[in-house]
Inverse folding.
């Protein structure tokens, strides 16, 4: 992989990793909410995850890494679980997506370090 692709992969991975951590940290807050507050919070969280999914798809099309396919699949499953009010499973899928992205980030970082660019 050329240096430009490695930098793009590292950049996208770091950005998406942060967004996944935010999503994971928001999920537990839904449990404490009731009624209309919960409905509103779920809508916002679903929108956030859909926007994150769009970002993952942009990265997948730019970087062409299989890790982004895995992350995309798991964020999609997280949204599905959230829609079924299964917060534990939703969080599990966010964690799996984070694992895929961390793998991608680590590989890019290692290659950039070997080239003395990080």
């Amino acid at each position: 992989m050329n240096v430009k692709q490695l930098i793009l992969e590292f950049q996208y991975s770091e950005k998406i990793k942060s967004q996944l951590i935010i999503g994971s940290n928001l999920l537990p807050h839904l449990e404490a909410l009731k009624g209309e507050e919960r409905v509103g919070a779920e809508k916002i969280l679903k929108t956030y995850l859909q926007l994150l999914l769009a970002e993952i798809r942009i990265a997948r099309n730019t970087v062409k890494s299989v890790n982004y396919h895995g992350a995309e699949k798991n964020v999609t499953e997280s949204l599905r679980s959230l829609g079924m009010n299964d917060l534990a499973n939703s969080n599990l899928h966010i964690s799996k997506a984070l694992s895929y992205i961390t793998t991608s980030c680590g590989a890019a970082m290692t290659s950039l370090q070997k080239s003395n660019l990080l």
In short: The chain has one domain: 3-26+35-114. The CA atoms of residues 74 and 93 lie 5 Å apart.
